[in-house]
């Protein structure tokens, strides 16, 4: 009965919506509800072609009917309910920004739409297509739709495809592209494919030196008089094609102007400084000439290649010191076709100083602010080096029943240098649009946990970043160094360790000394909005002290703890995997999912990962129904003896992390997007540790997974996405029953306080 009641409510709501959005129509007016396309001779088309053809034709029809959700014309309803003569105020805003005026059947031009559909069908190979349009409305109804009756006629297919057979350079080059032709014998005639074929041939010829050639120099001739509705297609070079378009051009000289401005009218070739294979005109010596050695892809006597030229333009921008690039080709053909290339570079502002104040709130009940002061020099040593010096300070206060009063203060300095080339023993060569980079980062951070302890953190990393193409990126760090030293550990914290014997509390303040290489690979095509399915993957492997540990015979389990510079070093292998999959359901609707599989293997000089390298779970970008860092490891939860012995609950961390997330995202209106989500996961330790029962990874790990669900809103503010999520747990790893949360009551404030988690964040969680 309850289900039937809900169904009736929905049906009544839809019915009332249909009525309420037509009562404002004038005498004789009818609301346009859309169009129906009827193909009466489907036997002339393949079964799989009917759907795409119908969808394609429907997209051409104008006007579009009023927007609907579940059959309800919500925008038209808003428009009717907010009618006003005022030009300001809330009603006016809702009426003009969220409302939508009625689309009347009288505004539909049936004849024009029929002509458009018929032309489209002919362009798709249905040369004999006929289209008729009519308006259909029920008696005494204020609703009307358009019906287009279509006879497609037979589709014409290619019997043969011909390319030029003459032996001059241009005809030979055009014929040489035939193996990759978009035109295939047996395919249906399609004008869009023909246009793309001309563009494809032009692109191929631009790689072979035909600088002045254009798609307009090609003509596609076809003969449709053949039997069985087939046609012969012939790709021809127009006889009127000029000589310049038939010549193969090569490069003579290359000139670069690193300090160009619109006031410059002279080429100043007499002041050119020749370096390697190019010439630099830079009287003020703003850059060193070698800066372009990794940028200019074309060389003298090379055949002109548009891809290499475009890659050069992109690399000029990637260098950093330049904001705009203008190029010019000069035809200097004395005896053979030659080009001189001029690159005019407009310099970006070299030095900058920026300051920002950030306010933040996390699901761990921290509210705080951070102040950043950043200095940048985009041409620090006149070789395109980017030098960055960042100072930051932050303070976070925690409210709520956990950790109240244990605030966090941080201060840090982070200098870094990025070279737009490879510096060092590694030789990485790429010939695409992206410059390989050498990156050196260093930093010091002071972390002060009020009433607890103070940590001094030092780090350094040196490595290389390069991109084989738009979607792939490699990052190889020859060295990642980190040293964390605890000082000023309070008596309260020491008493907590002694009374509770909680090994997690001790692990936080242990000195951490890690050093070693790392490598990461990233693939990402999720930024391409035209894709129905897209993925993001990041895999990383890192290690610490592997060779040193082997050389010294480090073995903690055997009592052989080894030190370097008087400090025990950490030894581990660490593997991280982040896979995300996105699927478009319809315009504005998307499924987003993510899976994390992270494993750290401590060995030799370590039995557990250093605290700074461990994994955490929970919070606004993880399991959103749980407080940040409050889950695990495994089914472990501090016993009453632990919580009674200290006022501080440590952040839970582990050596292994498994997490899966799924989220349905739907654009609602204007800048607002809604989401429904569910998350699952946990962290574990690699080995059992005294005082942490249930924390080690075992074959029962699936029974220790935490699960949550929730809903949220996203606000697209152009410069950023503001996100609000409300999550609540469904399964808690430490539950004594089946794990399902009992007594769900959204109206009970006590239930909200103990289960509902509010997350405020910037950007999508993944």
From TrEMBL:
Protein origin, superkingdom: Bacteria
GO CC field: outer membrane
Keyword Transmembrane: yes
Record-annotated Bacterial surface antigen (D15) domain positions: 361-737
Pfam families: Omp85
Keyword Signal: yes
Cellular compartments annotated: Membrane
Keyword tags: Cell outer membrane, Membrane, Signal, Transmembrane
Protein name: BamA/TamA family outer membrane protein
